[in-house]
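Long-time lurker, first post. I've been practising inverse folding by hand and with some scripts of my own, and I keep getting stuck on stretches where the structure tokens seem ambiguous. Below is the full token string for one chain I'm working on. Before anyone asks, I'm not after the true native sequence, just a reasonable design that respects the backbone. If someone could post their per-position residues I'd love to compare against what I wrote down in my notebook.
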């Protein structure tokens, strides 16, 4: 009975009460069962699901193996009498009846519940078929979106048949039709031919770091369904934003916004409540829903870039603006991807012209028409339009360091303007300045940009104690280790996995080493070995093969740094055997 009273509503809502009670007036048992089948089928879905489970339990309780039919029916009637008032509790309080009527209703309710328990296999047969269908769909949906999470961090292996097929698709469908490949530009994992197809380097796999196989699949989907637009974007990559890098950023943006990162899943593989309770959960019912949302966000990025006459230095500013617009659209609680697309079209149509850097009204109208045609191409013949929605005042634009990751020189004159957009250190640093923060922020994987930084450990504050470092680091996943040596050189490493004592190397390919010696450089995974992180009671290290890329002694007073195969780095410190002045460990929290 306590279970029933803790339910938000009665399992049999008040509007169904009289119809259920009326069942007992029918002359034959078959007629009563047929009516109960129809009535139960008309209940709200969540009521049916709970009722199905409850009736199955009660049926089993009333039909022990050693009981005959008469005894089972008698048990069912006793259980029904005990539960009738609880099962229909909301009705009892809503309807005022005479004493005799209440007695009659109570007897009728007992009889109805007895019928439901005894004949639950027939009454719930259709409901169980529905539930099985819904459960299968849910398993398929959860499996599909869990795969997205897993493939985000999967390093691309060009020798893998599926990966090579996807790369070959991009090779054949991107780049100018006037471009003729020579023997120096043949298809392969490293080829100058990739540069003419919107890749920012000749190493195809490296361009997808941070997005993994998920970003590669999404970009192929985009090229397949928006081929002409993809051609323009890839050919003009030098004049606009890096095409493949943009796809990786949008992939991480979309998966982060939809809460599809790995920590959103339980150990059993089910989605967490945070995912399934989101207002846009139903958007993910469609098989290619995430790919279509990616296409929309990628087109929106390109539109924002074009309309504001942005340059490469504006890349991260436009990325953040696109994220804000996508967040706004998702908060409108669309129930289908079609509805999300049309919300975008209506948003663009209703935006004041002065907010779009377009020289003429005709060009603005043509831009909206072009977007509508793109949407119709993808979304079919659904012509239903949403009511025009007025955007609230545009959220102030902001940016992180807008220079491409990998460039060695950053313009110092831009730092004053960028400072208000950079991560805020929640604790003072003995090492980092705004200049250092700007360069490190730009080097981070996309999914770790845009956060404030919190100090996890510092030798200046917590002492030179390795055990203390592990103790404080255990609650933080991704961290930046920063070291300043006696000669003033600043260096360290980023790790997306938490520091913990392990017998073997661990970590992921998103980790990297860095140094500010002479100029800032980030040294990323070469894919030659998986020696990302090593941690035991008396040392921690990053990189291996040849030398440790970075090694710290137990007393945290110094260590070594040398060339390693994992990150292909030189010595990070002023000397291979260095003494440290201070060591800090930073992590990320939402702004």
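-- Answer (accepted) --
I ran through it position by position. Result:
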């Amino acid at each position: 009975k306590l279970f029933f009273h803790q339910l938000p509503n009665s399992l049999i809502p008040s509007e169904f009460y009289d119809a259920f009670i009326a069942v007992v007036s029918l002359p034959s048992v078959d007629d009563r069962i047929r009516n109960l089948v129809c009535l139960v089928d008309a209940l709200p879905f969540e009521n049916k699901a709970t009722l199905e489970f409850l009736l199955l339990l009660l049926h089993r309780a009333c039909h022990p193996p050693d009981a005959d039919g008469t005894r089972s029916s008698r048990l069912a009637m006793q259980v029904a009498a005990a539960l009738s008032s609880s099962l229909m509790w909301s009705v009892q309080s809503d309807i005022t009846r005479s004493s005799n009527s209440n007695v009659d209703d109570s007897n009728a309710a007992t009889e109805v519940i007895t019928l439901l328990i005894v004949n639950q296999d027939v009454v719930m047969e259709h409901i169980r078929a529905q539930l099985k269908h819904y459960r299968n769909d849910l398993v398929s949906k959860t499996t599909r979106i869990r795969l997205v999470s897993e493939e985000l961090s999967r390093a691309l292996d060009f020798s893998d048949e599926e990966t090579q097929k996807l790369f070959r698709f991009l090779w054949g469908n991107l780049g100018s039709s006037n471009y003729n490949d020579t023997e120096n530009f043949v298809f392969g994992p490293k080829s100058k031919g990739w540069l003419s197809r919107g890749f920012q380097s000749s190493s195809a796999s490296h361009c997808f770091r941070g997005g993994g196989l998920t970003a590669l699949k999404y970009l192929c989907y985009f090229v397949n369904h928006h081929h002409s637009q993809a051609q323009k974007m890839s050919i003009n990559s030098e004049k606009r934003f890096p095409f493949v890098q943009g796809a990786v950023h949008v992939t991480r943006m979309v998966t982060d916004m939809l809460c599809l990162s790995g920590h959103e899943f339980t150990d059993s593989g089910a989605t967490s409540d945070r995912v399934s309770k989101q207002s846009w959960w139903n958007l993910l019912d469609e098989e290619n829903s995430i790919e279509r949302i990616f296409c929309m966000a990628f087109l929106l990025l390109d539109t924002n870039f074009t309309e504001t006459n942005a340059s490469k230095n504006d890349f991260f500013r436009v990325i953040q603006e696109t994220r804000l617009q996508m967040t706004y659209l998702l908060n409108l609680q669309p129930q289908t991807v079609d509805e999300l697309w049309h919300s975008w079209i209506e948003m663009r149509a209703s935006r004041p012209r002065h907010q779009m850097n377009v020289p003429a009204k005709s060009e603005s109208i043509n831009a909206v028409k072009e977007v509508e045609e793109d949407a119709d191409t993808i979304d079919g013949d659904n012509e239903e339009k949403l009511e025009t929605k007025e955007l609230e005042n545009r959220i102030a634009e902001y940016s992180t360091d807008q220079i491409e990751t990998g460039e060695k020189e950053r313009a110092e004159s831009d730092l004053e303007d960028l400072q208000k957009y950079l991560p805020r250190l929640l604790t003072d640093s003995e090492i980092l300045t705004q200049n250092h923060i700007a360069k490190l922020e730009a080097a981070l994987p996309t999914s770790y940009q845009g956060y404030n930084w919190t100090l996890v450990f510092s030798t200046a504050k917590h002492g030179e104690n390795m055990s203390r470092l592990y103790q404080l680091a255990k609650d933080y996943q991704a961290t930046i280790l920063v070291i300043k040596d006696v000669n003033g050189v600043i260096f360290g490493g980023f790790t997306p996995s938490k520091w913990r004592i392990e017998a073997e190397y661990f970590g992921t390919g998103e980790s990297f080493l860095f140094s500010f010696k002479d100029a800032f450089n980030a040294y990323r995974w070469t894919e030659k070995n998986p020696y990302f992180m090593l941690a035991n009671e008396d040392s921690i290290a990053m990189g291996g093969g040849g030398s440790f890329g970075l090694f710290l002694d137990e007393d945290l007073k110094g260590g070594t740094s040398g060339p390693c195969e994992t990150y292909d780095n030189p010595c990070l410190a002023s000397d291979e055997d260095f003494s440290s002045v201070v060591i800090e460990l930073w992590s990320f929290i939402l702004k």
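A couple of notes from the structure itself: The radius of gyration is 31 Å. Strands lie at 452-458, 479-485, 490-495, 512-515, 521-524, 533-536, 539-542, 550-553, 558-560, 577-589. Happy to go over any region you disagree with.
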